[in-house]
Design brief:
182 residues; alpha/beta; Rossmann fold; 37% helix
Length: 182
């Protein structure tokens, strides 16, 4: 069983048919079932939280995509709320970005959540491929998704061809690391 998590790039935002997202392409290619925890607009905090809540007992490989460091989440009125400065309800939290957020905070959070995910998979003896779509990350990842060769749709997310290219890139990286599921 494969485990995917990430933001809208993993979720397949911009696709008319989400079965064309790279998670589906890879799962079909390998004949593996999968769990996809991804969510559009989410943060590294949410990606971390949802990943560690998932039982890894039957997971052979996690493919986890980190996102932009300036996103976060809060627990408000009995539910988790995505805080994203550029979209949707996140705009109501612009005072957070004006008064509290800093690049140092974003980088610290990215480092903590990135390392916590790595440690979680290691502690559970489960293979991990760590991805990012953030072009300005200071930290090392196995695969950078957001590169000029990936065709993007109107919402700046990979289109169907982009997801096929990403699936190939992920496969090739796993093959080089000798982590391709059998």
């Amino acid at each position: 069983m494969l485990l995917f998590n990430g933001d809208s790039w993993t979720y397949g935002a911009n696709l008319d048919n989400r079965d064309e997202r790279y998670a589906c392409v890879l799962s079909k290619q390998w004949g593996e079932d999968f769990i996809d925890l991804s969510e559009a607009g989410c943060s590294n905090r949410k990606i971390y939280r949802k990943t560690i809540e998932q039982d890894l007992t039957d997971i052979s490989l996690g493919i986890i995509q980190m996102t932009y460091k300036n996103r976060t989440e809060y627990f408000l009125d009995g539910k988790w709320e995505n805080i994203n400065p550029g979209r949707g309800k996140g705009r109501r939290f612009l005072d957070y970005y004006r008064d509290y957020y800093s690049e140092e905070l974003g980088e610290s959070d990215e480092l903590m959540f990135r390392q916590a995910i790595i440690d979680h998979f290691a502690a559970n003896n489960t293979e991990l491929l760590l991805l990012t779509n953030s072009k300005d990350s200071k930290y090392g990842y196995d695969v950078q998704l957001n590169t000029p060769d990936i065709p993007l749709g109107a919402t700046k997310h990979p289109d169907r061809v982009g997801h096929r290219i990403l699936a190939h890139r992920i496969y090739e990286t796993l093959n080089q690391m000798d982590k391709v599921p059998l």
